[in-house]
């Protein structure tokens, strides 16, 4: 199994454990220091990406970038094309460490 497959499996585990946030909740959890790692899709918009990177940097949260695409992320989250997710946050420290190990 490749590291990419292991990464996708670990993210899927975090989703099933309800330890993933996205959208406005992601930003709220970052400011409350309740996110341990942020995963950004490699095809996220430049402006959004910069804002999220700045916020994560300010709160000293590690960001994993260029590891997964929007379609892969949305497939894991079972989201349709009308509501695409570009970034997620992992709210469990152990799952975050597992995901970081497959970087």
Automatic annotation (TrEMBL):
| Keywords assigned | Ribonucleoprotein, Ribosomal protein
What organism is the protein native to? Mesoplasma lactucae ATCC 49193
- The name this protein goes by in its record: 50S ribosomal protein L7
One cellular component term (GO) for this entry is:
ribosome
Q: Do you know which InterPro entries this protein is assigned to? A: Ribosomal_eL30-like_sf
Q: Known SUPFAM superfamilies for this protein?
A: L30e-like
Q: What Gene3D superfamilies does the entry give?
A: 3.30.1330.30
